[in-house]
Amino acid sequence: MYERNVKWIEETVAQQNEWRCNTLNLIASENVMSIRARRVLGSDFAHRYAEGHPGERYYQGTDKIDEIESWVKQQLKTLFSCQHMEVRPISGTVANDAVFSRYIKPGDVVMVNSTAGGGHISHHKSGSVGKYTKNIVDFPLTPDGYHIDCEATYALVKKLHPKVLIFGKSLFLFPEPIKDLVKICNDNETTIIYDAAHVLGLIAGKQFQDPLGEGAAIVTASTHKTFFGSQRGIIMSNMDKKEWWKIDKGAFPGSSSNHHLDTLVSLAVTTCEIIAFAEEYSKQTISNAKTLGRSLSEFGFNVQAKEFDFTESHQVAVDVSELGGGNEVARILKENDIILNMNLLPFEPLERVTNPSGIRIGVQEMTRFGMKAEEMERIAELIKKCLKESCSVDNEVRELRKDFQKVHYSFDE
Q1: What sections of 21-137 are H helices per DSSP?
Q2: 217 DSSP assignment
Q3: Where are the beta strands (DSSP E) in 282-412?
């Protein structure tokens, strides 16, 4: 019986692989790894344990992973111009928790981006921050909803003396105003934490912003969105060693024991690719997002932040409330092999989370498959035909994807 179940599982995986190769994947929090990064997954490292730091493990037999972990930490330090780099968290949310657990105590005031304003769930009462304090205050937003109102935030920092400001978003179109707020934070001994999960690859390519250089004390991130690697997390900082020791203990033993060595090895391969290709890839990704936003707008869609040229990242936000809402639109597009997600838009009530006004589109994966402006315009046309003309476009999607199967910005043969 269970041997048949194994066969069913294998067949289901094969179906997933084949289907996704014929879709337009526009989920903003995903990407695709190169063949060579995937090739090292499932090695002997998948069976092994390594607690502690390289050279200081609690297990024997870690010589090889010690070499790789030490190497990738040094490469990432150089890439991001930082003194400290933690690569042991197994996801961006685990990285966040490793930091939040050391910097947020019960009763502390923490300022974050609201859920509707794009903030990630780990920043909120129901996520990681909420485990440590309930005094969570949302950043005030400018009328467009996609930028923090710095004057109003300045006044709140002065009044509330928050322990921590958490920048970074899940719906993340534009850089955060670290430079504008760093002085008031320093004056109030407020720590700036920047969650770079979505934009880490753009930061690596020097096309978005430099959060550490602009004044953030700590940067957390996941490594599988615009940074196109295995699903892990990192933490970086330029703080003094004594302060960094808190985060070190937050990562181990605070939030992880063994840290999934096979995906760490895959991350090492991706780091080589990022160092070589991040600038070119980031420029193309942002250009593609702007082209897609512009094209959708020309087709009559209510693309957000038009007055700011739609985006400065890999993402585009669209208000589809007149087309049935985000949940319905995402469902229709999925039936036509265009994969994206519904999303709350700024100022929407949380009650609308199951069918919000918006959809969130990310172009980073299709960019890695080699798509450029012409393909972005074609994707906009397919979305228009599907949603505004009620046409089935799955065959056209598959036809478009036929020529975009090879992963670019890699060392694949």
Answers
A1: 35-39, 63-80, 92-103
A2: S
A3: 302-303, 315-319, 338-339, 341-343, 358-362
∠385-387-393 over CA atoms, to 5°?
45
Q: Is residue 113 packed enough to be buried (19+ CB in 10 Å), middle (13-18) or exposed (0-12)?
A: buried
Cis peptide before 349 (omega within 30 of 0): no
Residues 6+ apart with CB under 8 A from 208: 175, 199, 202, 282, 312, 313
Give phi and psi for 172, each to the nearest 5. -130, 90
- Delineate the domains of the chain, giving CATH numbers in brackets: 38-270 (3.40.640.10)
Q: DSSP secondary-structure letter at 310?
A: S
Q: Residues 387, 328: contact at Cβ < 8 Å? A: no
291 vs 310: CA distance, rounded Å: 9
Q: Is 74 exposed, middle or buried (0-12, 13-18, 19+ CB in 10 A)?
A: exposed
- pLDDT tens across 68-98, in order? 999 999 999 999 999 999 999 999 999 999 9
pTM over 0.90, yes/no:
yes
**Size (the chain), residues:** 413
- Position 275, amino acid: I
pLDDT in tens, 169-199: 999 999 999 999 999 999 999 999 999 999 9
